[in-house]
Design brief:
With 763 residues, this protein is an alpha+beta fold. Helices cover 58% and strands 10% of the residues. Helix 16 packs parallel to helix 19 and helix 17 packs antiparallel against helix 19.
Length: 763
């Protein structure tokens, strides 16, 4: 709880409220003549160890003494809570109620958090349509709409792709959509707003967690305010960015809050029922929300090891310390396994994760209890854990290689997979990439994470937060998609740092963990103090305030891209094109957006991801037509398309398929649309009309026409070589009037669409 040289009335009162059987022990050490030894007392080693760990008793040169007689007597007299009954003392540890001033301040910082999440409003709601941000949100939109229109579907009869991917995420979005109307329009609004709701819930939970651990409402408010301006969290919870990550954040913070509460209470009682249930719900939600959810359970196991080691070090009973945690994990293991067996959710490997965590935690506690009963030290216990961990891994690898390979493959796919997907890049791979995702919040948070790590032995409430912070920082460093998961914990420690810095510049009192007493309310700052606080916030959060709109704008759909998608959708409807004749072949990062608005088939971008790069970089457009024919109807080039000379991408985007010095003209790609600025172009795949004619043998014949594409008029040029008998053949993708030497020929649309032959009359 506290350092050995400082204990507060609140600390002692909390200890007595949680462990009333220790009250006679505390009275005994108060009555003992100082300095005293353990042998002078009737306490057992566990009780004495708890008093030492709690900071009531401290070691001195000649033995032990009570740290502060006055403080301990006040706690025994009930002064900590303004009364003498146990209920009043108990309120000290759980009081997170809000006075009016705190409530207004909390509403204000939550409003700031929401405001930074809705900066994308004009980009999301356009011309009566809901244009979700990014590419992946259209995957969830596809499945929610599929479930809305499917007959007889239930949570237990989900398509395999959903059931083994993010079943709880999709089902929750689907059921909420059903509640608000059950239409496609309702689905669009639910998916657009759900990330903002997630951010709001996460903000509230972050406040409660921060106050729970720091006993300081000012720190809680600062944590939420700094979370509001963490760019890596803000864009993933921005309006319209309906990715699965936003769904993970509330479960994660809820789990941490429950774990902190259980670790603090150190016993299984009726008061532990609610946090134990919270732990069960949090673990269940985390696991069922995403197939990589088990990665986010690692801090729980690390916390269990830490709590047990500290219990043995201080002479306490590990099972008593971990009983509430074990209860919560046991319920979670059962719930997840029922969801797997009854509903078919997730693979057995994923569904077994909470069971493995529960069994592992039981083993950790059991070994800790055995070591304690044997009178061995915590070092022996730590060595036992290391040996068991290595030995267990080797046993599984050798004895069950198939299962081990599944684990390795899962970790490799979910954590170590690289490639050109932005979310799989490393946090520190770019020198300043981390700064653009965190602002200075990370800089401020890390020293206090280190401080809390050293503090965790004296106050085990910090232990779960330390575990979560280090594990999630490692995950974020490995792949930046975990930045959002780490953001709430970084904001918590940054909030502590913010109040501490404010105290250092004389504009606030020290935060409670350094002050030694709970801060239940906030004082109205003077104008000078308020100005100084604003300046301090701008110094820390200013970069994030600038970067949040930048990061959000990077995931919103550009106007030109959406105009292109809308045009293709109207064209496909007007010409009666069905899938796959209306499939859009494009750069994979925009593929789901295009196909949602054109064909509705936004389930996967795998084909585009595997082939589009090779297509635009190729030198033979005809060979690619043979592959794409019957598989795609539209080809889109965009500002992101590689347009190097000698490539199909460059020829289409810059020359509309006309011949260049490096490549012959394309024969099957007809430009049908471009945006006003020419940045986005659409091509239809067509058989092309075959022009035949005659000319001098062994000569080159040039064919040319002008084509209207959008608001532009462009030239298309094709060349053919006459054979030894003076005939030539050329295929062209555009209808219109062609000039062939001193001759002209009209190519009808039907010839282009059906591959018919058109003869060029002799001059």
């Amino acid at each position: 709880m506290t350092d050995s040289n400082m204990v507060t009335v609140r600390d002692v009162a909390a200890l007595i409220a949680e462990r009333p059987e220790l009250e006679p022990c505390i009275r005994e050490v108060l009555a003992a003549e100082e300095p005293f030894s353990f042998d002078d007392l009737s306490l057992d080693s566990g009780q004495f160890g708890e008093l030492v760990a709690a900071g009531v008793v401290t070691e001195v040169d000649a033995g032990y003494r009570v740290v502060d007689d006055t403080v301990v007597r006040q706690a025994l007299d009930g002064d900590a809570a303004g009364g003498t009954d146990a209920t009043a003392r108990r309120r000290v540890t759980v009081d997170i109620s809000l006075d009016r001033r705190v409530a207004v301040a909390l509403a204000g910082v939550l409003a700031v958090l929401v405001a930074f999440r809705v900066v994308s409003f004009p980009s999301v709601f356009r011309d009566g349509a809901v244009v979700l941000s990014g590419n992946d949100p259209y995957y969830y939109r596809y499945w929610v709409e599929q479930l809305l229109t499917a007959s007889g579907v239930s949570p237990g009869s989900l398509p395999a792709e959903v059931a083994r991917g993010e079943p709880l995420t999709v089902v929750t979005l689907w059921l909420v959509t059903e509640l608000v109307g059950g239409t496609r329009a309702a689905a669009g609004h639910v998916l657009a707003w759900y990330p903002v709701v997630s951010a709001l819930v996460t903000g509230v939970l972050t406040y409660v967690l921060t106050v729970r651990v720091t006993d300081d409402r000012r720190v809680g408010l600062a944590a939420v305010l700094l979370l509001a301006v963490v760019p890596g969290h803000a864009f993933r919870t921005s309006l319209g960015f309906a990715d699965h990550h936003a769904f993970d954040y509330p479960w994660l913070v809820l789990t941490a809050l429950a774990l902190v509460t259980l670790v603090e209470r150190r016993e299984l009682s009726r008061r532990a029922a609610v946090p134990a249930l919270g732990l069960a719900v949090g673990v269940t939600g985390t696991t069922l929300a995403w197939e990589a959810g088990p990665l986010l359970l690692a801090p729980i196991g690390l916390s269990a090891v830490g709590v047990t080691l500290l219990a043995v070090h201080d002479g306490r009973q590990p099972f008593r310390e971990m009983a509430g945690v074990l209860a919560g994990l046991g319920v979670a293991a059962a719930l997840v396994w029922v969801a797997h067996t009854a509903l078919g959710w997730h693979t057995a490997l994923v569904a077994a994760a909470p069971t493995v965590l529960f069994g592992g935690t039981v083993a950790v506690v059991a070994v800790g209890g055995a070591v304690r009963r044997a009178g061995r030290s915590w070092r022996v216990l730590l060595a036992s854990y290391l040996v068991a961990g290595v030995g267990g891994s080797l046993t599984v690898a050798v004895g069950a290689p198939a299962y081990w390979n599944q684990i390795v493959a899962a970790v490799g796919d979910d954590l170590l997979r690289g490639g050109n997907i932005a979310g799989t890049q490393t946090l520190f791979g770019d020198s300043f990439g981390w700064l653009l995702l965190f602002g200075f919040v990370l800089v401020l948070a890390l020293p206090y994470v280190v401080w809390a790590t050293s503090r965790a032995r004296a106050d085990t409430r910090w232990l779960p937060l330390v575990a979560y912070s280090w594990v999630l920082l490692v995950l974020a460093a490995t792949q930046v998609r975990f930045v959002g998961e780490f953001a709430a914990f970084a904001a918590l420690f940054a909030g502590l740092g913010f109040v501490h810095l404010a105290e250092r510049v004389d504009i606030a009192r020290s935060p409670a963990p350094f002050l030694g007493e709970r801060v239940r309310s906030i004082e109205r700052p003077s104008a000078q103090q308020l100005g100084a606080l604003v300046v301090l916030f701008l110094l820390i959060g200013g970069l994030g305030m600038v970067q949040v709109p930048v990061k959000v704008s990077q995931v919103t759909i550009p106007n030109g891209q959406h105009e292109t998608a809308t045009w293709m959708g109207d064209y496909a409807e007007e010409h009666g094109l069905d899938y796959p004749d209306n499939y859009v072949f494009s750069q994979w990062g925009a593929n789901r957006h295009y196909n949602y608005f054109v064909s509705g088939e936004s389930r996967s971008y795998a084909y585009a991801q595997s082939n589009y790069g090779d297509f635009v970089g190729a030198g033979n457009a005809t060979a690619w037509y043979e592959q794409l024919h019957g598989r795609a109807g539209f080809v889109v080039t965009a500002p992101t398309t590689p347009t190097g000379t000698g490539t199909v991408g460059g020829q289409l985007h810059r020359a509309y398929g006309s011949r260049t010095d490096q490549l012959p003209a394309t024969e099957h790609y007809r430009a049908v649309y471009e945006t006003a600025d020419g940045r986005y172009k659409v091509f239809r795949l067509v058989p092309g009309a075959v022009l035949t004619g005659t000319g001098p043998p062994g000569t080159t014949v040039t064919l040319g026409t002008t084509v209207d594409v959008g608001d532009s008029t462009v030239e298309y040029t094709q060349q053919a070589r006459t054979t030894s008998d003076g005939t030539f053949t050329a295929r062209v993708p555009y209808p219109g009037q062609y000039t062939v030497g001193n001759r002209t020929v009209r190519v009808p649309q039907s010839a282009v669409a059906n591959g018919r032959t058109v003869s060029v009359a002799q001059s």
